[in-house]
Design a protein that fits this description.
Blueprint: E1 3-8, H1 16-23, E2 29-36, E3 43-51, H2 54-64, E4 68-69, E5 72-73, E6 75-78
Antiparallel strand pairs: 1-3, 1-6, 2-3, 4-5
């Protein structure tokens, strides 16, 4: 079963392909997603890497957590499930307060 990892401290110039190549050293990478800011179109400096097995995910954590990658120190750990968020306010309606 695939294991999703949170990766923080990603340099803003890093591509998903470069991150995939780095994490491939620990095993098979199922997917990579670098989170992009909607307004600026720029990387937010974190993302997610999905490894194919728990063992490969653990190896990736040991290999990359606290290590330098393209000039920045990465934080790598098991991703937590996304928490439910309250609905966003609709700022397009009049008198919504």
């Amino acid at each position: 079963m695939a294991k999703k990892l949170y990766v923080g401290g990603i340099p803003y110039s890093t591509t998903e392909d470069a991150l995939k190549d780095a994490f491939s050293q620990a095993g098979t990478v199922e997917s990579v997603a670098i989170i992009i800011d909607k307004m600026s179109g720029r990387s937010k400096g974190f993302g997610f890497v999905e490894m194919s097995t728990d063992e490969e995910a653990q190896k990736a954590i040991e290999m990359w957590h606290g290590k330098e990658f393209e000039g920045r120190t990465l934080t790598v750990n098991e991703a937590r499930p996304m928490e439910a968020r309250p609905p966003r306010r609709d700022f397009n309606r009049r008198n919504n307060w």
